[in-house]
Amino acid sequence: MKVEVIKKRKLMFKKEFDTSFVGFMKDGAKWLVDNTDIKLVGSTQDAKIAQIFQEVILVEGLKLDDIQPGIYSVHCLPLRLVGAEGSPIRCILIN
Hints:
alpha+beta, KFase_sf, KFase/CYL, two-stranded parallel ribbon, Glucose Oxidase, domain 1, extracellular matrix, secreted
């Protein structure tokens, strides 16, 4: 799906979950890990797929609508939550 299409749908601004949202199947996640150098993807609810993405950062609700194409350094800053397996983060891009 092209970025232009995602922008037009404005998924981040909807109050209800968009069930037409596309996610990863196990074979697609495995192919992505084995054949690309992608290190950051949107989150997945499926624990088996998340396990395939062991060395990939999963970010739920990643919003890149206003980002210009280019090479960036991505920094994800998590909150420290005692006893939690994950936390909210703030991602920043440095060009």
